[in-house]
Amino acid sequence: MKKILAIALLVCSLLSLMLSNQAFADGPKPSPPKPKDPKPGGTPGHKDAPFDGGLILLVGAGVVYGLKKAHDSRQQGT
């Protein structure tokens, strides 16, 4: 029984290795076209840094931290 399981595992391993090469058969994706007119002050081919979502999270974390510090200082004072 152990011999059959070992052979089945070996066959499955070999099949998965042989079939995994098919996943790489497509080749690289074409690069996106470069913009013709850059934004004023920008450089061609570079996108502006997205800071909207991260900035909101950073400000929110700062507000929560400040509120916690204020709450803790009030509790120590009384």
UniProtKB/TrEMBL annotation:
State where composition is biased (Basic and acidic residues): 34-50
Q: List UniProt keywords, sorted A-Z.
A: Membrane, Signal, Transmembrane, Transmembrane helix
| Signal sequence, start to end | 1-25
* Region span, Disordered: 23-51
Keyword Signal belongs to the record? yes
Where exactly are the transmembrane stretches of this chain?
Answer: 49-67
Could you tell me the superkingdom of the organism this chain comes from? Bacteria
What this protein is called in its record is: Signal peptidase
